[in-house]
Design a protein that fits this description.
homodimer; DNA-binding; globular; alpha+beta; 8 helices; three-stranded antiparallel beta sheet
Amino acid sequence: VILRLSRFEPLSSEIKDALRRGVKRSPLYSPYANLLRDGARDVTMLLTGMACRFKLMGNGKRQITGILVPGDICDFGFLTSSPPPGPLMTTTYSQVGRIPGPAFMSLFESDPSLMLATLSAAATEAALSQERVISLGSRIAVERVSHLLCEIRSRLDAVGLVGPGNSFELPLTQAEIGEALGLSTVHVNRTLQVLRRDKIITMRSGKVTIEDLPRLTERAGFDDSYLRPARLSP
Amino acid sequence: VILRLSRFEPLSSEIKDALRRGVKRSPLYSPYANLLRDGARDVTMLLTGMACRFKLMGNGKRQITGILVPGDICDFGFLTSSPPPGPLMTTTYSQVGRIPGPAFMSLFESDPSLMLATLSAAATEAALSQERVISLGSRIAVERVSHLLCEIRSRLDAVGLVGPGNSFELPLTQAEIGEALGLSTVHVNRTLQVLRRDKIITMRSGKVTIEDLPRLTERAGFDDSYLRPARLSP
DNA sequence: CGAAGTCTTGACTAGACTCAAGTTGGGTGG
DNA sequence: CCACCCAACTTGAGTCTAGTCAAGACTTCG
């Protein structure tokens, strides 16, 4: 799982070894645990479970601004020593790996491709954020929910976490999905019912099965090209 | 204007000189001109005017995903040689400055602070994107419009483009504001009327005057801390 | 088995969209 | 210099998507 960085840029095996040696696996965090560690300037990657970035609004509401799946880097602040973009919370039992920031940075020197890989990961995160803007700005409820499912499926698939029959764990409550998509819990519920009624998905206790991916993709208007760190032809 | 990068990180005067020498000013672009130059791997900065990034949806709608003000870097793709995140269009007469990508990158070697400044600029853009998600996800129309006005005022202020009495040029049609905020043109119009009726703003042909910034800030729930590239205490 | 959190359902409300028809204002050409 | 034109802005009416409130059913877990 840790090797996902190499999806962005071919990495030499020495670097991979160095990374493996440097990573410290964290203990298992419980659901709703806070992953924010403002003091530490570590490079942190989610290894298992799921997490989300959010912001508490004045009126007590919460807006989820990003969802992390295994293989995602929790915070790119180490690149600029800027503060993290908001609190980070697990949504289920999760584990992270950490490498001390300075150790990671020093590997940049020895192999510039690690830098490129890191920047590509950051660029992909930016693309995710942009797609979220598009969802919230110009898609209706069914499209938003469908799009989220397609996106998460794609991202989990990239790290081998999609089982047979397009099924995967989705440890998010409907309330959390609503907070991520700018919809009320009730409306998320009704939207999911439509998708189930139309035999497009099945959901049961945190496990989603996509019965008809083409139709879901079509309802979502989903195009996964933004997830792939496509290289310009050199 | 070009020196805005130094807001992110103190830059040596040699670097500033080198930047100044390397920049080629573009001719004046007309409104609605396309700034996307996929072939060229230049570092491009908007110098005057305004521009926005957008995406065309299947149904003919358009979602504006980002607004650029003078001093903003148009495309961070040169960092990762990844494709630009969508088309970029001027909304008024505009001018950009370009530095060939390789030339810019080679300056990284001589002074690492330029790299930090560039990354900080990218981080700020990410923060903008996140705040947009928050707006679209959990703010109602008046809050969105107010927030946009506060944000643009702040960003223009940072480059000295806010005149006396908190007035500035806003070369966006109401339709474009709607596309950026996920609102219909009609609703944007009505929302602006409310703000004018309450003597909070004045608008006339592309020029906005904020009569009562505290009240606008309050309606928007605006907090400019995300715009400032705050450094962690070292 | 009980309790808390999650999911579901119904009824009502409201914020925002669409459609449609003006009105204004800046720019162009006769 | 005026008439015209087009784009942007306004206004009104009706509709609908999604939100709110409230109550009940189902899970999961201690």
